[in-house]
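Workshop exercise sheet. Pairs work together: one partner reads the sequence aloud, the other fills in the structure field after running the prediction. Swap roles for the next sheet.
Pair: D.N. / O.F.
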Amino acid sequence: MQVLFLGTSRVITGISPIELYDRYGICSYNLATEQQPLIASYYWLKEVHRLHKESLNTVVLDVSFLLKKDSVSEKSKVFAEKALTHMKLSNVKIEALKACEDLYDDFKAIDYLVPLRRYHSRWYTVTDYDFDGLLNKNNSFYTRGQSITYTLSLDSIKESTRNVPNYSLTDSLDYSPEEYETEWDEANRKILDEIVNFCDANALNLVLIRLPKTTDDLQHDAINYLAEQYNVPFIDFNDPVLQKQVNLSFSYDFMDNSHPNVFGAEKITDYVGKYIVDHYSLSDIRNNEEYKYLREQREQFKVVEENMELLRCTTLEEYLKVIDRDRYTVFVSVRDEASEGLSEGMRAALADYGFVQFSEIDYREGYVGIRDRGRILVDEVSIDPGYEVFADGKCDADGHFFLNGVYQACSQNGEKIEEPEGFLSSGISAFSVKSGGLYGGCISSIRIGNTEYSDNKLGINFVVYDNKLEMVIDQSTFDTHSGAASRSDLSLSREYLVRTDAAVLDASFSVGELIKRALDKDYSVLVVGTSTDSANGLSEIDYKMLAESGFEGSELLTAQPYLAIFEDGRLSTEMTASPDESLIMPNKHPGFFTFWIRKDPGESARMAIGDSTYSVDENQIFVLVYDRETNETVAAKWFAFNSD
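Structure field:
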């Protein structure tokens, strides 16, 4: 091993050792763990050095925990236990457990050397989960410690809770060493001293790193001050300038407000890898026979890349081609209406995929489809728009499951499956799929086990389960109620992220900040509040920024459905409606290239600009930024709020 990564869960999801191998010929491993305390990082460093003394060259350390004030808390102790449990017995592990015994109250090293002492009374609570790590044959060792996540945050984050500065962290900031010392934890500072001294004594390069979460200038400067004292580099991905350089999108590259997904990991890993090869001397091991196992792991990693292809699709036809893989189980459910936007080409693609009944769906009919590893098991349209269609259960040994409440034979294109074994992956304990057109319940539900995965949005809702990884790897909606047939949310992300300005706008983490930045660039802005409580989560900072932008009616967002349009740096249109009224905008608007919006009582807003159609669920604020010169949507973001 040449490079070691240590740190918290943001490093687990944000650093890809296989990408480092593929792009830079580096052999590395990601040994980050959930909320990994620095004491655990230190002893994992010592253990890896013991095992890879001849090859270890560089250590990349996440210093997020340095700023925590709970280094000796009960919570920290739990995560130290979790980080060290799977270290094999060695002198280093014994040393680590003794150090934890000195640091934490009620920590007894002997309990971790002889686990039976701790768990001797737990036999009556043991479940299958306790053996997953031992019995699961699909453990993804080829990821080399990285946790793969395909989730895109998109509109799932309460963006106003993200505390990210408007300034560049690379600017010179004036704070005193005394102020810095208030930011880090004393016990963690001493452990960091030991890490630095260990790396110096063993000629190891040390790089300090922080992945995006929340920060302020004092926190950044406090760590930067320490890095200068230690004479080690510090890479802070909270810096907006660096985020723009890497082109990080918090809608597209993150699964939530701080954990990178596979796309974010690609960008972050590429930057870190380039930094390492530019500053340190490492040999390229891609053609070294001693590392041929990495070539094999690289081949296994293709599963991840294939799944990433799925997330990059923006049209229904593309999507159907990519999900045509034998290892996938695909669940489909329609909400409200999905027929008007289906072109003949889309209908043909659905039929080719095996969803023959779906290809013939009529206005506001419900639909449920299940395709399991190449076999069509359910392809059912509701008997008329006023009825719900549903399938649930799991095909049993006799080849039966429930469809529309009837216990019947599993079928493939109308023919009974004589050998139903493996109807669904063993990773799926149970399922339930429901669909209703507008008059049949207006619902989309796709449950696997006890978890709801359907986006429950207008049009076609897909959920894709990877039987090899035994996990859901995609939840998508194609809004085919109109001629646009756009992929909700994701197509917007792919469209606007190719623009340089859009990356800056996408790094805006609140309603107020996005509008302010967009107006500064002379873009047109559309704001929609979709229900009476859509703005309950707006912060004081949001209101201040909105007021500075000339937004006089911000308080109306909390009272009723709302529409505002900013043009030429000013508020040009403002409309409201009572909760039981429709809010309708005319088909033509001089500031936009074909624009309409409709807000039905109790339903989501629907709007179109040019050839792009958008739908917004209730309890949200939707902000769309539009470039009138190029007739392009530059950014489109959903801010979900509720009474919490």
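Discussion prompt: The first strand starts at residue 3 and ends at 6. What would you look at next?
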